[in-house]
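User: Structure please.
Assistant: Input sequence and predicted structure:
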Amino acid sequence: MHSLIIFASGKGSNAQAIIDYFKQNGKAKVSLIVSNKAEAGVLDIARNEHIPFLVVDKASFKETMLIEQLNEHKPSLIVLAGFLWKIPDTLVAAFPDKIINIHPALLPNYGGKGMYGHHVHNAVVAAKDAESGITIHYVNEVYDSGNIIVQARCKVYKGDTADSLAERIHYLEHFYFPRAIEFLLSGKH
């Protein structure tokens, strides 16, 4: 069975979708959740699901000890599910082509530092774009610039707000993210 490590900073709805998906099909399990916020909702999910978790601060995030701790779980993939810190180059180098991220827009548009969640949705609505979506991509040393694995699209309607667009984006995330992970784990890509 494949081992997944999830990094998240928020409530953890994508983490829960991934956990639930793989509980049903048994092809992988989340063996560790890492957060940079001790009060993050994703840690409540970890407790409820009996998944070990780790809270990191800026200093420990850049230490090689973290790499050792992650390696103990033998991750097939490290999944960034709403994790708001840039991944250090040492971590990217330690897990080449094993770190993936989900972004709530169609990259390369609306990517980069500070572009997450409602910041992205506000920008899409303000630009009056006809569509938005999600991008699942590999993580490299530059924000939101790793090779794209899959994108899924949805319409942006005239009366949309960041909140109404976010609802459709969350639906895409919860549907596609676990399936993209399964696809990557299958080795058929």
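The mean pLDDT is 95.
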